[in-house]
Amino acid sequence: MKRIGLMEMPALFRYREVAMKGKPKHDRFDSFSIRHPQMDVGKRAKIFAPFDALKGFDDAVSAAAAENERLYENGCISSEWEYNEDKTQEWEDENADEMV
To answer: Using CB atoms within 10 A of its CB, is residue 76 exposed (0-12), middle (13-18) or buried (19+)?
Structure first.
């Protein structure tokens, strides 16, 4: 039985005939390949690079990284990344005017 990825292809699969044919093979100089040349990998990367599936995700990760770095530099997080709540509260009390 033919597979679709890791699962078996159902007998009543709508596109069974198309899937059974497999990927079309073209000669380098046939009419299809001449009209539709293969795109360069670099050009494909430029097309899809601006796509951001999770809007704001990079900004949120950067903000969290900056916050963790700030906590680490001020001794609120140890080198093993254990959170020290007392040290954090102490530091926040001392620097409350800078955090606004």
So the answer is: buried
Domain ranges of the chain: 3-48, 57-99
The answer, yes or no, to whether residue 100 has pLDDT greater than 60, is no
Which of these, 14, 21, 19, lies nearest to 3 by C-alpha position?
19
Structure tokens at 49: 């690079």
Read off the amino acid at residue 85. Answer: E
pLDDT at residue 26 tops 70: yes
Query: How far, in Å, CA of 74 to CA of 83, rounded?
Result: 12
pTM of the model: 0.32
Cα 91 to Cα 97: distance, rounded to the nearest angstrom: 11
Query: Residue range 6-13: average pLDDT?
Result: 76
Distance of CA 26 to the CA centre of its chain: 32
